[in-house]
Amino acid sequence: MNASVLKDKLDRIRAEIGRAVIGQEEVIEHTLIAVLARGHVLLEGAPGLGKTLLVRTLGRVLGCESKRIQFTPDLMPSDVTGGNVFNQQRGAFEFLRGPVFTQLLLADEINRAPAKTQSSLLEAMQERSVTIDGTTRPLPEPFFVIATQNPIESQGTYPLPEAQLDRFLFKLDVRHPNTANEKAILASHLAGFDASALDRVGLARVTTPEELVAMQTAIRGVRVDDSVLEYIADIVGRTRSHRSLYFGASPRASIALLAGAQARAVSAGRDFVIPDDVKALAPAAIRHRVGLQPDAEIEGVSADDCVAEILREVRVPATIAA
Amino acid sequence: MLFVVAATATGGAAATAPASTPAAPVSTPADAFPRKDVAALVKEVFATPVPFCTNPRYPLTKDEVRWCALIPKQDPRCPELARACNRGATAEIVGRRVRQQQSSTSIKFPSAAAPVRIFLWILLAVGVAFLIFLLARQALAQRRPDKEEAIEVAAPGAPDDAAAAAARQVETDVQRLLERARAAAARGDFGAALDDAYAALLRKLEGSGIVTVESHRTNGDHVRDVGRQLPALRPRMQAVVSNVEEVQFGGSAPTESRFRSVMLDVVGLLGERLAACVPFIVAVGLAGLLAGCSVDRDSWEHSTSGRVLVVDMLKRYGFTARERLASLSKLDASVSSLLLLPDTRVEDADWNAIAKWTGEGGTLIVAGGPRTLPEWIGATIVTDAPAAPASKSPPPLTVPPEQADRLPKLTAVVPDGSRVQITTPAPRQQPYSEDGDEEDPPALPIIVRGSTPYAVERTYEGGGRAIVLADDRLLSNVSLLVDDNARLLVELLRPGGPKLELTGELTGLVSQDPITSVQRGRLAPAILQLLLLIVLFFIYKGAHFGRPVDPIANSRRAFSEHARAIGMQYGRRRAGRHALEIYGSYALDRMRERLNLTGGKGLLAVAEEVSTRTGRPLGDVMRVLVESRAPNQRPTDPERDALVQEANAAKDLATLRDLYTLLQRGTLGGSQPPR
């Protein structure tokens, strides 16, 4: 599967998703890139911005089996992973699969569940398997988690631990649509679009799970120049010495950035990565992997500000500038 | 330009003798310069080739064709004019601009008082000085880096060695980059050629303010910049970038075909940038062309109707013939003779000045022109339809017998069409004539065509005179070739003296002040509109008229600003020691809190743990901790006080930094030094 074929396929996926989700092109693009890079996505945004709709649409267009978990404070880890239940008729324990055994998992409002429940996804996200009572069960391929969280509410929420956050390839900020897009959303609503009844939209299934796995495999062949590797390492390395950051990004961030850049290159029809791919994805790949110094937080500095500052400091490969 | 601008007067008043009677020979300054052979002078003048004498296809106007019947059929002085005449009238106009009496709206400025004028002059001087300063500064700035003007050093500081310095040098000149690209391609180094070609494009775009070349900006940033400002160029720019990136990052070989493709696009993009300037260039060119056409005096002056040869001949004769640029109202004794040509614009004030000047002995020669002459001249010019057809010679000009003493017997002829009519003479009023009520003699014909006056002369009390010619044909180049026309002209002008000035369309256009200049140039509406546009532009842009300052933010100050402000207060009060003590206590508390101290909470235990974590010697760590706690002894000697305080301040700051580093590395693992 060469780059142009992949690009055609991705264009069709984008077009299909765009029929249901209006005005979130960047989020759609980054989510697709994450899917191609075998990564998980954390969507953060106010309610009503179409996060859940995006995931549901994505599941249909990609032809993947999708399940949704509404995270609540009383949600238990076994509600996510499943567990062994005693079958009285057979007189033995049987494993009941939890919703995590799917291809596309929507973890809705993930920060409403306590840390132990959130952590039940750790192994699934990293190892793509679930271990219960000493038995490890693989998850279906492809597998990716798209979690959502609301940044406004603080009552009854549990911030995701750093280890959990690090598992997400990208953290995407879902912003409010502009006026034109909002008008388009209204027009779509007037035309009869109902987000709860996607069947009526008639979304086409562009890929199959097998094709998606093939696409994920194909992007690993995308060429990455040494200078681009240095560029990635330099960006991530600087997060560890930035004055406003309490802790910097881990090597997993570098890997995420690399994989994302490869996927973005394919998305643009290229079979090689350019610095622009890295630069475009750096905020999404790094912002949730760094911790701000208390004084920086007081000053209102955000992780995005730090990443932007780092990107301004790091020299782009092959630049002609002095 | 035909004439040299006369900036200063030649000096010396024209000495004139009062004329007792019009018929009597007048003692004039002409006696001061000797007579010369006019025919020889004309031959000399025509020795220099002029277009109408050398080009048999020289275009002639209808008016000029009327000379054809008068010139010799074969004239060695001007061999091709007869052949040009055979073609007839083939031109409408020979580059000459007829002065138009503009009827457009003009805004009259109120007469400016002296302070206003002085202020304007000062303003102008300051503006000019400022411009000169800017130009000089720019010139110096450009000159300074002459040897390295297109080279920027990548990193400041002295280069380690020549090779490193060369590696850091970055070429920024577009042309040199393109040349370098071509040279690299010629020697087969297509990788370098591609880089240089792309760099040339970026530098060009940077120079145009479209992209910003900085070390952190990617090619994609440049493409987006271009897309924002010049959307039409984006696809081409993208094509170049894609080609370049395939080599830079895609592992593709830099081939000749790829270089050619990139170079084609680069040159195309550079060309399109230039193409964007084409309308401006065309506009400027057209404006220049139109301006050039409108003042194409030179070509007209060299035509048959022009005067360049006449002036040349007069100069050779001894006249200081020059064009008058100053206003006629400033006419003075430095001019002995004034030749008023048809293009001259004469205002009432000018006529008054001329009248006064003639009263003081000046000689005015009015050479035709559609103007109403003042009554004191005693003659007027009447334009008739030509009596003789173009193919036939009109009656010759002759000197009336009563003027035999005034002018010699001559054979002259010019195309007909105008005549002079003597009018009832009117006395000049005070102050032009001291005897205002004394009547001057009337004008008398001095040259006639048949019985019709062609030129009349009136003399005034005080020696001045006014000669009115029916037209200015005697003053045309071609006239010099006809019979004794040249001699007649010289004889007409001689009595006026050698200090001859010719007026023209530029006479009086030299303004005394900027306001008059604007007024005469009818630029007031344009300037007012320009000012209005500037005001609108400033309003639109919100440009400041003073020093720009950031608006006062209503939000709360940042934490770091408070910390910085407190630090500055400590610094001003020389209380670095105090700050160190406070920070020392804070740091020690944090260390005790964060470190896993197994040997108690004492200073030694803290130092041991920090030393273990940071790898620094225990003694070193202990020294920092102790110094941050133990106050230095205060000096008592006032003279020593400042020195010791300064030394202590530097030492305290170093200790503070050490402490910060220990705190960060020992407890957090960070390594960023304090700001």
Short description:
Chain A has 322 residues and is α/β, with parallel strands linked by helices. Chain A contains 14 helices and eleven strands. Residues 1-27, 94-110, 142-160, 292-296, 433-437 and 670-675 of chain B have low confidence and may be disordered.
Structure, explained:
The complex is a heterodimer of chains A (322) and B (675). Chain A has 322 residues and is α/β, with parallel strands linked by helices. In chain A, 45% of the residues lie in helices and 17% in strands. Chain A has helices at 3-20, 25-36, 51-62, 77-81, 115-118, 122-127, 162-167, 179-190, 209-218, 226-239, 251-267, 275-286, 294-299, 303-313; strands at residues 40-45, 66-70, 82-87, 92-97, 104-108, 129-132, 135-138, 144-149, 168-174, 245-247, 291-292. In chain A, the strands form 4 sheets. Chain A has a 5-stranded parallel beta sheet with strand order 2-5-8-1-9. Chain A has a two-stranded antiparallel sheet with strand order 3-4. In chain A, 44% of the residues are buried. With 675 residues, chain B is α/β, with parallel strands linked by helices. In chain B, 45% of the residues lie in helices and 8% in strands. Chain B has helices at residues 38-47, 51-54, 62-65, 81-86, 114-143, 162-168, 174-186, 190-207, 219-229, 234-248, 256-294, 297-301, 308-317, 348-359, 485-493, 514-520, 524-541, 559-572, 576-594, 603-614, 618-627, 638-668; strands at residues 151-153, 169-171, 322-323, 337-340, 363-367, 379-383, 397-398, 418-422, 444-449, 452-459, 465-469, 500-502. In chain B, helix 1 (38-47) packs across helix 13, helix 7 (174-186) packs antiparallel against helix 8 (190-207) and helix 8 packs parallel to helix 11 (256-294). The two termini of chain B are 70 Å apart. Classes of the chains: A alpha/beta (322), B alpha/beta (675). Chains A and B meet through helix 12, helix 13 and helix 14 of A and helix 8, helix 9, helix 10 and helix 18 of B.
